[in-house]
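Quick start: read one record
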Amino acid sequence: MIRNSKLSFEKAVTRLNSKNLTDLWITSCLLSCIDYFSSWDKRVNIFMPMVHVQSVSMLQRAILESKSQHYKRDIFDSKDFPDVYNALVKAADDVDLLRGEAKPDTLLRSFFGTLANCQIRFQERDLRRRLGRSYGMLHDIPLTCKGILNQRHGKNFFDLTTVFLEKFGLSVKDFLLIGFVVLTLIHERFKPYSTIQSQVEDYLVQSGRRHLSNRERSLLLTQLIDKSKAWQEALIFQPQNLVVSGIPIFAIEKVKAYLQLVARSTQQLRELLHSVKAYSEGPLAERVSPLERYPIVALEDDTYIVPNLSYFEMALTELPHFILQESYTDNRYNELRGYIHELYLQKLIENCLPSLTVIPEITYHRAKEEVSGPDLTLIEDNKLIVLEAKAKRMRVASRVSPASEALVDDIQGAFSAFEKIPSKVNDLHSGLPQYLSYQVILDMTRDTEPLAVVVMGDGVYFMAEFLQDYLGNNPEHFLNQYFYPFCLIPLDKFEDAVEIAATGHLSLYDLLREYWEDSKITTVRDHPAEDFRGRKPTGINPLTKKYIDTLFAELKAS
């Protein structure tokens, strides 16, 4: 029997209509904290699979669709929770994801790809790396490489660090640190739950069990929702709670500027939900939420709450990009970001794999045409890696439906880059005067097969497999008869490859070639291509560590 997801969702919304809005946001924040901090502390979530990012986001969508208001007196309690939760579970169980005319393996990969981009990406705990990358790309490189960026960007250049500060009242560095302090504040205020969880874990150990029974779980949830309102209200904060005495970054003016950028009232969020097309694309449970763009809800009397910690953590590093894109609708920021992307990749490789020869982009003439060489030419043990950087971000449609044509549209720039690489390889071996200082080492790569790599600034899960699936269904595409092995890889996964190669277990060339080979396996298997056959980075790379240390230096000093 097919469940009617719309009716189930409306049932949950109806139950919330009479509720006090502030209380609903507190409950939402509580459940999100249970999900988020349990995994942050590397503990087992005693409520799993009941409380996870999708169930929390479904509740928040129901709150935004409801008629709940701050003045209403009815409180959400444990008697409401089972009916609302079960209705939202049914609403999220959308069988349409498993329908269609595609091949069974393609259909299954589409299903898991959709779930991965809407759930798993919020469950990954790589905050330190993302903070370091964001600081490097949006603060350090624009500041220290201003001359290079000005030369490359030409008449469209703008000084990102100065502009951000002037436009928004705080720097990108300030933005990242204030967001981190918000996360730290909530973690500190959530400690009463940590005590409860520790007690439960001790109880399970003493009783020789691994899980609570359904009855025990229900009783504990009742205690948390009904009997702990006092400490739950501590999850609400005011701007002055983020002020750190003696550190100018956390002055009240900057805190208020930060909140102005990332917080919206419930009414404003409700208007966005119904007016912005992106928030209605895809199945109900997999839709993007306005809380991903504005992860802090402004309540009454200059108070605030974070309803979804997973959304907030992702937004902490993503929002500067969104804010700049919104401010520069003429694409000037996206162009600048492309050049920053190239410089970041160059610094990453030079810091992590110093034994590689790295040749930056060089401009030369082919006949009467001015041509730009590869963004980066890498030489590793007489093997040639030709790397192009494409900083374009994925659209919402690519995330909520990664097997659709939207993803193909988003990677057209990568196709164009792949198309130009063979002629660029020929040029590298042709003895151009511009490459004279590198010609001896370039000539040593003639007898090995070059590797073509395009690093995207953003990506979706199973991106390499989706590309191969697309090529399989489009036999006329030029990549089906391509000259070399080729990799289309998002920046974060390329970072993984660089970090794994830096451990010495496999060269970067061999690792990326494996990635290409594995991407062609379109049946279900243990590891997707981006998992590098189960290999994981053993730590944070030197470049990211340097950026993190610089970002937090002022906090550590105080």
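Residues 449 and 484 are 7 Å apart (CA to CA).
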